[in-house]
Write a structure and sequence with these properties.
Strand content: under 5%
Order of helices and strands: HHHHHHHHHHHHHH
Structural class: mainly alpha
Low-confidence stretches: 154-158, 183-187
Largest sheet: none
Mean pLDDT: 84
Helix content: 55-70%
Number of strands: 0
Length: 283
């Protein structure tokens, strides 16, 4: 809005000054200076706000990089700017620091950045890296255990498919090669079997050692390709990368619901409303 007023400031002043009743409403040079300061301080934040409010791509893992960029570059006070602009930048930065200093929120953002192949540990504080990795391993272990417990139980004995027993195969005469193969496999199994946590830790280490993906790449597409290489870590990525960074997507759903449930359609059943909103958002 202020950008538009500044663009049309000359025309607005001429129109207001032409009428004696509105002459006092013409913006003065002090008003123009204040609007320019506000524009300079808030202008760069608009692009980041629009980007974080999207719902067609991963956004939660962008919060940490955006906060880092705002702190070290965009909201950094400059000697070239006047005091009002620097004061606004300092106030905004202080508000952001207070908003995201909650340990639970900060840990969630760190986990989202960790499973994003574009960032990983790049924007996680050095002193918290080991803690975040250990927490990620514990969460993966918990996810896998939960999935194993939620698997369907074995079929009952009355199931006709389980009653069928294939005929036994005719025993073949063993060869010398098969004897060596058996002895070798037996020797391989004598070593200790790694625990689930050790397997997850090794996979996490391998994932973190891979080069970071390009910043323009879709992390979901990256995981679609590399899920075979990191099947356990991909479970954690599915859990965190689906979280929206802002409440804008849910607010859009409420707006869609308001457009559907009108005064003329106030008797719609909840199930019907859910279906109509789903179709409206996904078609």
């Amino acid at each position: 809005m202020m950008e538009r007023v500044l663009e049309q400031e000359s025309a607005i002043s001429q129109v207001l000054k032409a009428d004696r009743k509105t002459r006092q409403l013409a913006p003065s040079w002090q008003d123009v200076e204040v609007m320019e300061c506000v524009k300079k301080a808030l202008g760069p934040l608009r692009d980041f706000t629009d980007a974080l409010s999207g719902e067609d791509y991963v956004s939660v893992s962008y919060v940490k990089p955006v906060l880092h960029l705002l702190k070290v570059n965009i909201l950094e006070p400059s000697e070239e700017d006047i005091e009002l602009t620097n004061t606004m930048r300092t106030t905004i930065l202080s508000y952001l620091n207070d908003k995201y200093q909650d340990p639970t929120t900060d840990a969630l953002l760190d986990m989202a950045s960790l499973v994003d192949p574009r960032f990983k540990r790049q924007y996680i504080a050095t002193e918290k890296t080991e803690e975040i990795q250990a927490r990620a391993v514990s969460e993966i272990e918990c996810l896998l255990s939960t999935q194993q417990h939620s698997l369907p139980t074995s079929t009952s004995q009355n199931d006709p498919e389980t009653e069928y027993q294939p005929p036994p195969k005719k025993a073949k005469k063993k060869t010398l090669g098969s004897l060596f193969k058996t002895s070798g496999s037996a020797a391989d199994t004598t070593g200790p079997t790694p625990s689930l946590r050790e397997v997850i830790e090794a996979e996490m280490k391998a994932y973190l050692s891979t080069p970071n993906a390009d910043s323009e790449m879709d992390p979901l597409e990256w995981w679609k390709v590399h899920e075979v290489n990191f099947p356990r870590v991909s479970k954690l990525a599915q859990k965190y990368l689906c979280i929206p960074a802002t409440s804008s997507p849910s607010e859009r759903v409420f707006s869609t619901g308001g457009n559907i449930v009108t005064c003329q359609r106030a008797t719609l059943k909840p199930d019907k409303v859910d279906k109509l909103i789903f179709l409206s958002k996904n078609l």
